[in-house]
């Protein structure tokens, strides 16, 4: 079943985020997509009370480099959660599979190894249109969904 709208959230169900600090690591591959995901994430964080100076944004070359970029964000910045933003689109070869598997497992490993949650905001799509639909198109913006997830995980981290 196709993704339902990724952008809806009920602020009444979201923890107060004004004291939280967030890191966002963004892949430069498919920048039209990843910049829309970033825009959605930042706008949602601010809508939930996060101040601009509490949002740290770093760029990395591709989704595979999100692993190292998020590790450095977690270990060198005082953040309550990290959002990893990328967009991998199937090409002619199996490279898509290895990039997707690599970044997925890498972010799993970071969540196990460290005390700062890393939220998986990586679109892994068969076509460009699928990516467009999920980064501010007809299915919403996964950046919004992941910003809300990051706030909830930052709150959970306090226990
Ligand atoms: N094809 C895509 C890539 N490929 C590049 C890798 O992520 C990585 O930067 C390279 O293998 C060097 O380590 N990356 C994406 O984010 N999206 C793609 O569609
Ligand atoms: C996911 C990728 O790295 C992919 O876009 C590269 O394209 P190709 O598989 O045609 O080399």
Automatic annotation (TrEMBL):
List the GO biological process terms. riboflavin biosynthetic process
* Keyword Transferase attached: yes
What is catalysed by this protein? (2S)-2-hydroxy-3-oxobutyl phosphate + 5-amino-6-(D-ribitylamino)uracil = 6,7-dimethyl-8-(1-D-ribityl)lumazine + phosphate + 2 H2O + H(+)
UniProt key word Transferase: yes
Where (2S)-2-hydroxy-3-oxobutyl phosphate is bound, by residue? 92-93, 134
What this protein is called in its record is: 6,7-dimethyl-8-ribityllumazine synthase
InterPro entries in the cross-refs: LS, LS/RS, LS/RS_sf
Q: What does this protein do?
A: Catalyzes the formation of 6,7-dimethyl-8-ribityllumazine by condensation of 5-amino-6-(D-ribitylamino)uracil with 3,4-dihydroxy-2-butanone 4-phosphate. This is the penultimate step in the biosynthesis of riboflavin.
Which residues are 5-amino-6-(D-ribitylamino)uracil-binding?
Answer: 29, 63-65, 87-89, 120
* Pathway this chain belongs to: Cofactor biosynthesis; riboflavin biosynthesis; riboflavin from 2-hydroxy-3-oxobutyl phosphate and 5-amino-6-(D-ribitylamino)uracil: step 1/2
> What GO molecular functions are on record for this protein?
6,7-dimethyl-8-ribityllumazine synthase activity
EC number(s) of the enzyme?
A: 2.5.1.78
Q: What class of enzyme is it?
A: transferase
What residues make up the catalytic site?
Answer: 95
Lineage of producing organism: Bacteria, Pseudomonadati, Bacteroidota, Flavobacteriia, Flavobacteriales
Q: Name one GO cellular component term.
A: cytosol
Q: Which family does this protein fall into?
A: Belongs to the DMRL synthase family.
């Amino acid at each position: 079943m196709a993704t339902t709208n990724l952008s809806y959230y009920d602020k009444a169900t979201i923890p107060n985020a004004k004291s939280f600090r967030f890191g966002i690591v963004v892949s430069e591959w498919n920048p039209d997509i990843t910049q829309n995901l970033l825009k959605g994430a930042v706008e949602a964080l601010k809508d939930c009370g996060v101040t601009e100076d509490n949002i740290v944004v770093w760029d990395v070359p591709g989704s595979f480099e999100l692993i190292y970029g998020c590790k450095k964000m977690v270990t060198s910045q005082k953040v309550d959660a990290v959002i990893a933003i990328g967009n991998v689109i199937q090409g002619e070869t199996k490279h898509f599979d290895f990039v997707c598997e690599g970044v997925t497992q890498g972010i799993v490993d970071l969540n196990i190894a460290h005390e700062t949650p890393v939220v998986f905001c990586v679109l892994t799509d068969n076509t460009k249109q699928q990516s467009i639909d999920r980064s501010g198109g007809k299915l919403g913006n996964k950046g919004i969904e992941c910003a809300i997830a990051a706030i909830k995980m930052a709150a959970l981290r306090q226990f």
